[in-house]
Structures are given as C-alpha cells and as structure tokens.
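Look over this record before class:
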Amino acid sequence: MSNDRYVSPLSERYASKEMQYIFSPDMKFSTWRRLWVALAETEMEFGLPITQEQIDEMKAHITDINYDVAKAREKEVHHDVMSHVYAYGVQCPKAKGIIHLGATSCYVGDNTDIIVMREALRLVRKKLINVLAELAKFADHYKDLPTLAFTHFQPAQPTTVGKRATLWMQEFMLDLEDLDYVLGSLKLLGSKGTTGTQASFLELFNGDQETIDKIDPMIAQKMGFRECYPVSGQTYSRKVDTRVMNVLAGIAASAHKMSNDIRLLQHLKEVEEPFEKSQIGSSAMAYKRNPMRSERIASLSRYVMVDAMNPAITSATQWFERTLDDSANKRLSIPEGFLAVDGILDLCLNVVDGLVVYEKVIEKHIMSELPFMATENIMMDAVKRGGDRQELHERIRTLSMEAGHNVKEKGLDNNLLELIAADETFGLSLEEPQDCMEPSRYVGRAKEQTESFLKNVVQPVLDANQDLLGVKADISV
C-alpha cells in the first residue's frame, strides 16, 4: 500500500475482499475476454471464417491478462477497450484478427457491467439472508420478553423485544423481494453495434436476418443469462442501474432504521451492541461504550441512499442513442454503492450476532411506566364494582398528572397506584391495583405475532437458502 496518495476507505476499512474482487480489474478484464470468446464462438457457429484453433487460443489466455501491454498501449491510443483488444491479440497471434469482430466497445463494457452487478447482487443477497437468519434467532429468543414500546419516542403500550426485531426483519424482507425481482430480471445488452441497430452484423452475415436474430440469444446463453434486452441504443438503458441502486438504497434505509433503534436502546441501557474486551469507546472518557458499529451503519447507509441519485440523474440525461457523460459517474457510483452496502451488511451481521440485552433495565423501565398503562384495567374493575366510568376517568386523569408531576418535578417514583388506592372513588385496596402490574398482560399478541412471522414468512426463505447460511462478518473497528 502506498502512503502518499488517497485510498478509498470503502476498500481499506469497510468492504469485504469478496466484494472487492467482484469490482476488481481481474474480474472486469477476464470477463471482457470471456465475452470476446463467446462472440467469436457464436460467429464461428453461424458460419464466419473463424477456427476452433483460434477459439482455443483465446480461451487459453482468459485470466493471464498482460496488463503491462494494455497500459502501454492505452498511453498511445487513449482507448481502454482497443488497448485490451491489442493486448489480447499479442497473446493470441492466431486469433488477433477476429477478436472483437463486429462489436463496439459497449459489447464488453456494458455486458461486463451487467455481469458484475449480477455477481454483486448475489453476494448482497447472501449477506442479507444471513442478517435475517441472525435476527430470527434473536427475535425467537426474546419473543416473550416485555419491553416498553415507543411512539414519538414516548412510552407507549408494551411490546416484546422479539416483536420489535420483527419490525426490522420485515423491512429487510421487503428489500429481499425487491432484490430478487431486479436480480431475476437482469438481461445482457448483447451485441447490437454502435447505435443498437446491429448494422455491422448485417454486413458480416450478408443481410441474413434469421441468423442475426440468433446472435444475442446465443451470447446470453454462453454467459449464463436467459436473454438480452430486446432493443437498445449503443448502451443498455441506464434505468437498469437506477433499479439496482434503488435496491441497495432500500437495504441501506432498513439498516439505518435498525441501527438508529439500537443506538437509542443503548442510550437507555436496555440493549448494547458488541464491545471488544480491549476496545476504547472514547479518547477522553474511558468509561464510555459508544455504539460505534451502529453509528457506522447509519453513516454508510446515508451515503448509499444519496448515491442512488446518481444513476437516476444519469438515466434521465442520456442523449438519444448514447452520450459518454455516464461513464465517469458509473465507475464511481455503482461499485462504491455495492462496496458500502457490503460493509453495512457485514456490520449488521456483527451487531445482531452479538447484541446484549439487559433484562433488568428493561424491567425497571417498564415497571416505572406500567401504572399509567394499567389504569384502563383498574378503571374497568372499579366500574364492575358499581363505579361511574366518566367520573373514574376524570379521577385517573387528575391522579396521573399528580403522579407525573412527582416523577418529573420531584424525582420521585411513580406513585399512581398508591394515589388510586387512597382515592375513595375507586373503592380499591392497594393490593388490588398491584394485581394489574404484570407486564405480560399488556403486550397483546406480540409473542404470537413473532412466532407466526418467523414460521410463515422468514423460515421458508431460510429453508430455501440453506446453502447460503453461515456467513460470519470480519469487520475493522
């Protein structure tokens, strides 16, 4: 590593080696060569004067790329594709004359971009499923642990720790549905020529329309795709990039929401993300245990959500059959969006796998608010004894304000139950309201909803993807 120039933190700190390889020069240029082989094979099979010997020579040099020759040539001609055509020809003298025959630069450039995005989406999908698997374990373990729910970040009717995790999971499940749709609908550009009309093939095959119609399907099959986009300009529609990045932005938004919840819960001391034995939380305050991983998830997620604007604007500003103002932007926005999401999902895996739940703190918080939430049950019991509901409601409102004043202004414990027991309107002893102070009575169907969601929604996905499970994240803190 050189220390005298900028290095992207996405590569150095956040993204996995696996995702970095997908966007590496080796992946890119070996895919170019695989595409040139597929084109030459197709042209040979449809009768052009190309020999199997030439094809075999090309196949023998798919991965041993002579970068030095290509770089030297690019300094002369200032064209990356033609530099690699030249370099490939140096290694394949017999096939030199038929490499890239009938194709334009976008044949290798755009088809490779689609292939690379497909591989990157597959890796994202694998990690997303593993995040769901870890969250499923967590949700199942804590499905019946009551906790305060919050609306407006104000205490509300209780839920369970596991049920809250299902809310995070449902958003990731929606992302998985979007990802599967986009992944399943990706097509190759094929080989359509400089403006998408296949004019060069009309010349090569002497106007044989039937043969030309078979070229794209044959190339798609050789590269592992079902089909090519039926029409194009010189490039595939940049709206494809928009759809891909919207999937990544959706995952980022889901991860951001989860990480924010965890950060707030860590402030409440109810839940804590993993903290290494020798980790330092603050350079000044040695006691601190900051939610650094969750903060990093939020930080990278914001980057991805904003990055999704790039392909949308690029798609909107393409002129007619092609303009080159997409190229520099694509080189940045697509790889870095994937590298960032890769880092986000690794962090999610690490955080969820090591989440610590402090049950006593959760119980303390819920018990401090439960008297307010128990008032409806208390009121109903009093009505059964002959009380007037409207009068009781007004007394509870008044006593609740008094108890709230004691808590907020005087720093005292919540004494609402004592105030109710002392009020003759209710005709209750102190022991009777205390019977209402069981948190599990107020969580509704949180446990059952969690069990149903895990069984009917999540588990079928995990069962169908057993071969992808078991990913462990290696992160740099």
In short: The chain is about 65% helix and 5% strand. The first strand starts at residue 146 and ends at 151.
